[in-house]
Fold this protein.
Amino acid sequence: MSLALAQGRIELLQFFRTRESLVFTLLFPAMLMVIFGSIFKSVEIAPGVTLSQYFVTGMIASGILSSGFQNLAITIPIERDRGVLKRYRGTPMPKWVYFAGKAVSVAVLALVSMVLLLVIAVLLYGIKLPDTPAKWGTLGWVSVLGLVSCTLLGIAFSSAARTGRSAPAVVTPIALILQFTSGVFFEYDKLPTWMQQFAALFPLKWMTQGLRSVFLPDSFASQEVAGSWELGKTALVLGAWCVGGLLLCLLTFRWTTRRDG
Amino acid sequence: MTALAIKVAGLRKTYGGTAAVAGVDLEVHKGEVFALLGPNGAGKTTTVEVLEGFRKRDEGTVSVLGVDPAHSDSAWRQRIGIVLQGTGEFDELTVGEVIRHFAKFYDNPADPAQVIERVGLSEKAGARTHTLSGGQKRRLDVALGIVNQPELLFLDEPTTGFDPAARREFWELIRQLAASGTTILLTTHYLEEAEYLADRVGVIAKGTIVEISTPQELGGRNTAKATVSWRDGSEETDTPTATVQRLSAEYNGEIPELTVKRPSLEDIYLKMIGGAA
């Protein structure tokens, strides 16, 4: 167990010392939030709800997606290319420690990202922190389930990129498509039905909706496609992705490059 | 007869119809430095990676420290050290951080500070690894390979791309490790490296072992005819001393332009891998 923490510490050290990853994973969402938030500020989409508040909520969910999915699906192929994974396999370190280390670092990263985005959202865009224990609870479980599923999918997806260099090109479009269709950049209820149905297959749509239930007024629930927050369904879908992601990881994870055979 | 650290018999590994390793037999004794010498693509790395437990073999029996690497466990990994062909990068971590972290994986690690000292990186202990030179990175690789005080150390082409001075320094490091009793299996395509470091050399070409012997005896070098040449002639002989004495008497002392030459290791080696190719 202490090994897993040590592994997490090393991962975090590497992360926070790498300027590119810091900018890409933490500052980029914050910048997007400020840019789009400022553009949408005067657009009211429901009584007392501005488009920027809708967007900011989606960006917080995107921060979770980015910490788990993009981060791992990009850095693991790079580590695989560089022989870091092979080197770990040459030691008695149990395999799970590597993943536990990633999980620890992703959790810290997601927390930092969420706090950063929340501070901006509260200061600039009139987002209010949850005022009931129930809403804090929802924030908690939506974030944790969302992060676990994104982390597992990030690990599973790390096997999709053939080389470390191609990883961002494979991963970034997927994240962008999900963001466009899951109620981050556009209002989900205004999208074509087929697009809604597509997005509903993946975790991000349910994460944004779950977070809207926390940060937007209860009256906004009627604006949702189902006319309610659908929290039960959200838990179910995210939970299913956690299980599915875990299975995918177990089936697809590779410690060595294809070239290594 | 000393105990064996490695025993390989009939090892075969095929990739898509091409045999990378086509029947390798070799034995490495405990405490020995054994060099697997061969040109690029001869099957050195494939062989070693089977021994390290990274690759599955198609045929043959393999025993490394009494364990089949295909069924290795963490107890076995505690006892071996691996320096892979490529360098694993930990860009933004310092030398000290990487070594101390890897020490945590083992039950009986060496003192990280001593390991750093031993590989000659004390001055770089606080430096980020991406700032190291090629030779220094390789030293870090070795440090990670010996941080568990292994009984057996694998070194896969440890000095490829080194300048001659860095290679010399690196060789001294390996000699010290060998002197402390660590068994070392080294792969290299540098003849001088095998000659300088190894107790025994296995020449590998086209996936098979061509010969195993000491560097001094490789290819029958020690018993090969010597060539005695001087200003007025030359002859091949098994008894060069006698020839020189005879000539000395003929010339009444100094023999003009005298050389006595045995085939160099390089001559023999090139003949060997040429013959197999």
User: Anything to note?
Assistant: The first helix of chain A runs from residue 2 to 17.
